[in-house]
Amino acid sequence: MDEQHSRPLNTALVAGPPSALPTDYGTFTLRSYTFNGITHVAMTLGEPADSEAPLVRMHSECLTGDVLGSHRCDCGDQLTASLEAISSAGTGILLYLRGQEGRGIGLENKLRAYALQDTQGLDTVEANLALGLPEDARDYQAAAHMLTHLGCNRIRLLSSNPAKSDALNQLGIEVVGRLNLQLPDRPENSAYLQSKRSRMNHDVPNGHPDVEHSTGLDVYRTIATNDEVLAQLAQSEDGFIATRSGDAMFVSGTLDRRHLHCIRAAVGAVMVGAGTVVADNPQLTVRAVEGENPVRVILDPRARIPRDSTVLQSGDAPTMWLIGADTQVEGPLAGHVQIVRLPSTSGQRVDPHQVIAVIREHVQGSILVEGGGQTVSEFLSAGALDRLFLTTAPVLIGDGVPGIRFAGSDKMSKALRYPFRRYVFGQDVCTEYVLSAAARKHSAQTPAQLREVQEQEPSIG
Ligand SMILES: [Zn+2]
User: Fold this and answer.
1) Is 327 in contact with 339 (CB distance < 8 Å)?
2) In the chain, what are the domain boundaries?
3) pLDDT of residue 385
4) Interval between CA 302 and ligand 1 midpoint (Å)
5) CA gap 313, 281 in Å, rounded
6) Domain Bacterial bifunctional deaminase-reductase C-terminal: where (predicted)?
7) What's the distance, CA 269 to chain centroid?
8) Domain 2-100+138-199 belongs to what topology?
9) What is the DSSP letter of 428?
10) Ligand 1 centroid to residue 196 C-alpha, Å
11) What is the pLDDT of residue 202?
12) Which of 78, 113, 373, 454 has the lowest tally of Cβ within 10 angstroms?
């Protein structure tokens, strides 16, 4: 195999002279390779040709990810992790393949595809196809020639994409192992990475459900076919739903948002407290998936939400404005808004059970209590919820708008423990607490998991 090094190449590959490249990951040797009019580079560390099967990263150029720090894709993270892996192995090769932007469609088309993803909700594969371009236009001939020139026809490939090792094997490079870098998804790229996993056969990291799983959970059907009261909240690992200035963009990632929209599509009504409307001006409609908008319910005893808020202005969904028995509202309202009076409470906060009863008089189906933290917490501690979806994102906010908070207890043995199921949504972990006996019954046909959890003795320290 060592002879390969000096064997003349029967290709149009033009190899440049080696130079030293000191980097954060060690001092590499850098060479240019020009093939079919495109100049690539190879970074080598140590003497990979002497290695039995050196580590090789075949990295496709990505200006946005590699240079500009984009979180839309994982290229920058993969590049860094590959250089770290090669550095810690002490020897290896990084082939930086230029002209492979957007899986070979070029930078301009890649940005056009981004725009389509933003405006039409297409995934990364659909967007390429909508532009009349292949989902993957790359070929690895140049890379195979570069590896041959470097004396490495037997390698271990750093990649989560089996198509890359297949392509190299066909081009005469023996890939004896493929190492998946197992990087955590970022909130902004988890949907993109899930698309690559489900549509392009990329490795599914341990514990990752694919897109179908995460949007086709049995529980959506359970919610749609029963009259439950459920709540959903996404909070940071340290229990906040927004920063202290109210910035909640974005605590959890795309898949958790999709999950929320799946729940909205399954319920008859979605309710938020007035504080959420004041802080976030939400639409409360179904956009991330197909489905009908639920009735919007705004719990607002003092009628303090702004009159120009989306829920009062946009007729995308019927809106029920739940206000106090004696609260005055001036002037005419848009046709989609119906005022419904809460029972008289003589200054006390309204009992969540009464709120549910009032909503049930007007709307069929399940009711989603979507926020904010205070409203969800009140409904939880009043025992008004059948089910709670609590997503935690791996972010620490430190101080801010609290998520779940209620009058706790002195003893851990009195803390709330319920049967639960867990879902991994990209980087986020969603825990579904099955709170009521009714919900446990509705979910009984689903998972062995649920039984398992019910049988577990709580550990009391
Ligand atoms: Zn990229």
Assistant:
1) no
2) 2-100+138-199, 211-448
3) 97
4) 49
5) 11
6) 229-401
7) 25
8) Rossmann fold (3.40.50)
9) E
10) 12
11) 73
12) 454
Q: What are residue 428's DSSP bridge partners?
A: 425
For residue 407, count other CB atoms closer than 10 A to its CB: 6
Q: What is the DSSP string of 349-382?
A: PPPHHHHHHHHHHH--S-EEEEE-HHHHHHHHHT
**Residue 190 pLDDT:** 72
Q: What sign does the dihedral 211-213-216-220 (CA atoms) show?
A: negative
296 as an active site residue: the answer is: no
Annotated binding site for GTP: 57-61, 78, 101-103, 124, 159, 164
pLDDT digits (tens, 9 = 90+) for 341-371: 998 876 677 899 999 999 999 999 999 999 8
Backbone angles phi, psi at 299, to 5 degrees: -85, 105
Extract the annotated binding site for Zn(2+): 62, 73, 75
234, with CB counted inside 10 A (0-12, 13-18, 19+), is buried
Helix axis angle for 254-266 and 218-225, nearest 10°, is 30
| Rounded Cα distance, 57 and 114, in Å | 25
12 alpha carbon – ligand 1 mean position (Å): 28
Annotated binding site, which residues? 57-62, 73, 75, 78, 101-103, 124, 159, 164
Here the tokens at position 402 are: 């609290």
Question: Does residue 208 have a pLDDT over 50?
Answer: no
Ligand 1 center to residue 423 CA distance, Å? 27
User: How far is the first Cα of the chain from the last one, in angstroms, to the nearest whole number?
Assistant: 62
**Per-residue pLDDT, 206:** 42
The pLDDT of residue 117 is above 50: yes
Please say if 360 is a catalytic residue.
no
Which is catalytic among the residues 66, 136, 280, 386? 136
* DSSP one-letter string for 321-352: EEE-TT----S---TTEEEEEPPP-TTSPPPH
Active-site entry in 138, 178, 264, 296: 138
Q: Is 406 helix (H, G, I), strand (E, B) or coil?
A: coil
Question: Distance, CA 91 to ligand 1 centroid (Å)?
Answer: 25
Check: CB of residue 93 under 8 Å from CB of residue 63: no
Residue 204 near residue 197, CB atoms below 8 Å: yes
The model's pLDDT over 428-461, given as tens digits with 9 standing for 90+, comes to 899 999 999 899 888 764 433 333 333 333 333 2
DSSP state of 411: S
Secondary structure of residue 440 in the 3-state scheme? helix
Residues in the chain: 461
- Per-residue model confidence (pLDDT) at position 217: 66
Domain 211-448: homologous superfamily in CATH: Dihydrofolate Reductase, subunit A (3.40.430.10)
